[in-house]
Amino acid sequence: MYSGTIVPLITPLAETGAVSEQSVQRLIDSIRHQVTGLMPTLSSGEGWKLSEQQWHDMVSYTVRHSAGLPVLAGIQLPTTEQVIARAETAVSLGVAAIAVTTPFAPGLAQEEIYSHYRALRAAVPIPLFIYNEEALSGNQIALDTLLRICRLPGVVGIKESSGSAEFTRKLVAADLGIPVFEGWENLLHEVPGVAGFVGPLANLEPGLCNDMLAAPSMERQKAIDAACERYGLFRDDWYRSVKKELCRRRVIDTDATVEDAR
């Protein structure tokens, strides 16, 4: 059962665009004693922008330097067929689980969303984290649909990034035995009962995230909000801001993003 702070790793790149294995190792070393899992190639890792080689290398290096932490590989691709193919690669790389959005097709019917996850579970024998978001896929998973998906075998967690504290509270209250992780730093104080947190701040301040989970308070929420403002985490290109700070700290070698390397 997953809990605590899981870090959605940024993807450290060299100026050439290749994933920097040394930077991946230093990043993991800088936070590994304060997190419970590593989630590469999700949104904070520019997962939807990575080439197949970049995705492969980032996941491979994360597994290699995980120091015993579970690796939950993000897969952000437009179609169910593409996700299944990528999931098969993830299995071969030795990840513990995958984290997956809905297909990239705004306006999908809820039954189509359910069928996407059911097909994935049937095709690939690896545990699944549901990533509930709208910014990338264009879809929101309805509560009833999400509860149905959670009843599929092998669903081990939800990254709940709907942006609605009310929705998250309803999901927690359903008590399906599936851990729910808040995906927005600014909502942590409003969602008592979540199993943990998955958000970009964990790349920089995992201890602050842990403190909030252990003893939620408005004072700690204000400290988290201030950190998010300081590091630019509420920007549309928040991953760029995280990279700039990690580069300033000399944890990673460059603050290059996928766009920069093209």
UniProtKB/TrEMBL annotation:
Transmembrane segments: none annotated. Keywords: Lyase. SUPFAM superfamilies: Aldolase. Pfam families: DHDPS. The keyword Lyase applies. Belongs to the DapA family. This is Dihydrodipicolinate synthase family protein.
